[in-house]
Amino acid sequence: MYEHFFGLTERPFSLLPDPDFLYLSPQHKLARAYLEYGLTQKIGFVVLTGEIGTGKTTLIKSILKAKGGKQRLGVLYQTSFDAGDLLELLLREFEIQGHFNTRAARLSAFNQFLIQAFSRGEHVVLIVDEAHNLGAAALEEVRLLSNIQTDKEPLLQVILVGQPNLRDRLRQPSLRQLAQRVGVHFHLQPLDEEESKEYIQYRLARAGGSGIFTPSALDKLFQVTQGVPRRINAWCDLALVAGFAEGRQEIDQEFLETVVAAQGESLEGPDRAEGGLDEELPPQGSSNLLRSEPAGSQASFGELIEGGSGELADNNLRKEILELSERMARLEGLVLDLVSQLVPAITRFFIQLPPDLLKTTSPPLPPLPPSEAPEPLGEENPLPPKKKWWSRLLTL
Length: 396
What we know:
Layout: H1 3-6, H2 26-40, E1 45-50, H3 56-65, E2 71-76, H4 83-93, H5 103-119, E3 123-128, H6 136-145, E4 156-162, H7 165-170, H8 176-180, E5 182-188, H9 193-206, H10 215-225, H11 229-246, H12 253-263, H13 301-306, H14 309-351
Parallel strand pairs: 1-4, 1-5, 2-3, 3-4
Helix pairs in contact: 4-5, 9-10, 10-11, 10-12, 11-12
């Protein structure tokens, strides 16, 4: 749409993961080195985690594109399935032909495939994207499938890629055996301000453009996106569309602010960090085999699995109790308001009933003293105006 106007050969800020546009920041280079190390050394389990939009899938696709040697790669991008469906999906992904009506038959066929691949010198790698969607049973099924191995190496290598809650899931006691098999782990963080600006300039240059965003616009983009690559792509793409529509070949901060204001608030909602889950996570990538910082500066993945989950659970429980108490307080206020409106209405209803219906076998109540008797209703003493019981909702 706007490519010709800005002199670009293609869209530089597509939301689809494109390995040709992979920007290797220092941490992305380190993450790629860890993943390549895990592949070449045939380490059983490798875990790559990161916030939404930090480039995990793009990084994986770049490794798949540059794969070398005798490798049989299988990738599962859709992970919303039950443990019982995993074997069938793997047989389909690795193109294992045959009719297997039982789980035992499917398991036997997959094990035979691994043995034959090893005899041909092929390295079988399974990459599970969006692995945080897998339940504990499915993750345990993955571990069981990796049990077949030679004396020195596993016949199936697994790379789990997912959002930070994948680490929380691996901390579950039922998945302790899987967590202990993780040889390499890295956690991707958003880009810092300087990396964000380099990221934008790199992608523009990759598409044949330069100088479209002014320095002030780059500052604003980091403020809006907080260095998350997918957010950067979204706002840059919108800004280029708006610039094309307005006939502007340069996008400055003032114009970018207009674009942001026109779009309204982001649909994402609050960041996960505001919910408290990610505050417990270490600030940098970590591995229990490779370390980029002095020993002791980071906890290994094994240490993350073994400890620290109790305090996190307590904090989450306290937060949920606080939210529940606030909701109950609001509900109590609404009920009190409703009752305060219903009591006068019921009273007026009984006053208007015929005397015969109000007869009772109980002895009559003594008359009230004149000072406590209610004043008669009439034009001089009308009922107070009714207050809508739902009006309290406006103040919540």
